[in-house]
Design a protein that fits this description.
- It is built from five helices and 21 strands.
- By secondary structure, the protein is of the alpha+beta class.
- The protein folds into three domains: 53 residues; 168 residues, Glucose Permease (Domain IIA) (Distorted Sandwich); 43 residues, LysM domain (Membrane-bound Lytic Murein Transglycosylase D, Chain A, Roll), CATH 3.10.350.10.
- About 19% of the residues have low confidence.
Length: 304
């Protein structure tokens, strides 16, 4: 009896071993087959990349990892009456303005200075790619230039540390560096610039630094208005573009302001929308909420 039990056990182990070996062989073939398939797919993707090239290459003619403005495109050669989409804007920091865009100490200040503490996180205003990540002793200190779509770039100066690598892709809101006091700086702050094909635009025309939102989802470029500060600084004409008045006089353009509503007790989104003449959908989209979201007295809702 014991002999038969032993014999049955040996036969079972043998069958199991053969089955396991066969199964193992099948898995090996499966892996080799799919590895070969993966290799083919990878090769095709590489060939496609070689054909299409770098997504950003040639977007604005030049790519430089050292020159802030490598484009050589003056206002005279830039097209007029088009828009850039700024709806994705994410505030680079939450500090208040310490120095605005415009003339300063016999020079032109090409950005907006925002108060930060050394070590504060600085974030990407838009999605894009790191074009410059360098140190400039006499000016920006440690600084980053990000390239975005539609000719737009943003600059972040006086950083204490980089949190990104050259050519890295970033999303709006991603940490890119830490606030600092490097370069030509009289105290910790972020020097923030917005440039179109290398030409500085007053960031205050695009964003509200008090409310941390874009003034409009689309900003329309009209050269005589968009670059009016530089035109005025240059005596009424700047790189082939004159002021809208055709003289050296400078009249600040009238730009519509963002409208807000402060929530009161008993308010609901539908009631606010009805009183304000704005759709519920618009209010929800502007404030990143849904119709079912809870709103509280004292809360500010953006209406435009």
């Amino acid at each position: 009896m014991h002999f038969y039990k032993t014999l049955i056990l040996l036969i079972s182990l043998s069958i199991s071993s053969v089955y396991g070996q066969n199964n193992y062989t099948v898995n090996i073939r499966y892996d080799k087959k799919h590895a070969a398939l993966d290799s083919v797919i990878t090769r095709q993707l590489m060939e496609e990349e070689e054909e299409t090239g770098d997504l950003y290459e040639g977007l604005y003619e030049h790519w430089s990892d050292s020159r802030v403005n490598p484009y050589g495109m003056g206002l005279k050669n830039m097209k007029d009456s088009f828009y850039i989409n700024v709806s994705e804007y994410y505030p680079p920091c939450l500090g208040q303005i310490t120095s605005s865009f415009g003339p300063r100490h016999r020079r032109f200040h090409n950005g907006t200075d925002l108060k930060v503490h050394v070590g504060d996180t600085i974030r990407a205003a838009f999605s894009g790619r790191v074009r410059i990540r360098r140190f400039n002793r006499g000016g920006y200190g440690y600084y980053v230039v990000l390239r975005h779509n539609q000719g737009l770039e943003t600059i972040y100066g006086h950083l204490s540390k980089f949190l990104i690598a050259p050519n890295q892709e970033v999303k709006a809101g991603d940490p890119i560096g830490l606030g600092g006091n490097t370069g030509r700086s009289t105290g910790p702050h972020l020097h923030f610039e917005t440039r179109l094909y290398g030409n500085p635009i007053n960031p205050a025309k695009l964003f509200s630094f008090e409310d941390y939102v874009p003034l409009h989802n689309k900003y329309y470029i009209v050269k005589s208005k968009t670059f009016e500060e530089r035109i005025a600084y240059s005596g009424g004409s700047y790189e082939g573009v004159r002021s809208s008045e055709g003289t050296g006089k400078y009249t600040k353009g009238s730009y519509s302001k963002v409208q807000y509503y402060t929530v009161r007790k008993g308010d609901v989104i539908s009631k606010i929308a009805s009183r304000s003449g704005v759709s519920v959908r618009s209010i929800c989209k502007l404030n990143n909420i849904t119709q079912r979201s809870t709103i509280r007295p004292g809360q500010r809702l953006r209406l435009s």
